[in-house]
Amino acid sequence: MGLDLTADELRGRVVAETPQSNTLLTITVSDTDPTRAAAIANALADQLIAASPAIQGRQAEFQASIDADLKATQDQISSTKHRSRRYPA
């Protein structure tokens, strides 16, 4: 956007809130120019929307990985229980 701001300065002007009661994200930008504040908020929203499918795809991959790890752990527990029944201490 050609802003003369560092990332930290921009971060200090932006607030993003997600009320627990709904799925919307509210982006608020503080700036001396209301038109620029709206443009920044809209640009951030556009970037978030553009990244959303990629984020959702990664979440599915993470969940699949977690599910696979959980299944492997459950299989190990089951195998260990089965062996301990055959060879009691």
- Which structural class do the helices and strands define? mainly alpha
- Shape field: rod-shaped
Rounded Rg: 24 Å
Q: Total strand count, please?
A: 2
Q: How many discrete structural domains? A: 1
Query: Which spans of ≥5 residues are poorly predicted at pLDDT below 50?
Result: none
The ordered H/E elements are: HEEH
What does this structure look like?
With 89 residues, this protein is mostly helical. The protein has one domain (7-86). The chain has two helices and two strands. It has helices at residues 7-13, 34-86; strands at residues 14-17, 26-29. A two-stranded antiparallel ribbon has the order 1-2. The longest helix is centred in the last third of the chain and has 53 residues, at 34-86. The mean pLDDT is 80.
List its traits.
89 residues; mainly alpha; two-stranded antiparallel ribbon; 67% helix
Topology record:
Elements: H1 7-13, E1 14-17, E2 26-29, H2 34-86
Antiparallel strand pairs: 1-2
